[in-house]
Amino acid sequence: MHAPEAGAGPDQRMAQRAHAAYAAADSHPVEAIQKNWLRNQLQTKHHIMGNVYGTHLPMRIKMEMNILSQVQRLPGLRSSHVGMDTILGRDETIDFEDFLGVPEMNEQELDMRHALEQKYGLLPASSVIGPPTDAPRRPADSLPRREGVAMRFDLC
To answer: N or C: which end of the chain has fewer CB within 10 A?
Structure first.
């Protein structure tokens, strides 16, 4: 956190304090607890299992969690992660996440092709619809003729 400068006005000092407060990773200690709640619960559970059953069990469960967390469907299709829910014990409970904010209830349609191109980095530098923005536009008549390829002016 930077100390306010001696020559800075009250507004600038207030802006510096606000920037320092909001630039922090967690603005309140309770927020940090909420963000890390599941991680802390899993660490505690694995520590207890390691003491009771041996260190192989927490390592096996972590390995299974890593494998199951990599399973995903294509973009736009909801991945249910049934295996992860079973390992974490969330398959027998109903939480807010189960019925609030469900993607199937979303009113906006998703362009599957655009989502896949974005995921795999296939999008050219272009506008939303049309040719790349940096490419010069040429009329169809000025395109070079290619043998054996139907051109737009051949189809008219």
So the answer is: C
d(CA 127, CA 119): 17
Task: Quote the CA–CA distance of 142 and 156 in Å, as a whole number.
Answer: 15
Largest CA distance in the chain: 79
SS3 content of the chain, % helix, strand, coil (to 5): 55, 0, 45
Cα-based distances in Å from 62 to 36, 43, 93, 125, 148? 17, 10, 21, 40, 58
Is residue 38 very low, low, confident or very high in pLDDT (cuts 50, 70, 90)? confident
Distance CA 143, CA 156 (A): 15
pLDDT digits (tens, 9 = 90+) for 108-117: 777 778 878 8
Q: What is the pLDDT of residues 81-105, one digit of tens each?
A: 889 989 888 888 887 777 776 666 6
Q: What φ, ψ does residue 132 adopt, rounded to 5°?
A: -55, 140
Angstrom distance (rounded) from CA 2 to CA 12: 12
CA–CA separation, 87 vs 80, rounded Å?
A: 13
User: Where do the domains of the chain lie?
Assistant: 10-122
Q: Give the integer Cα–Cα distance in Å for 14 and 2.
A: 12
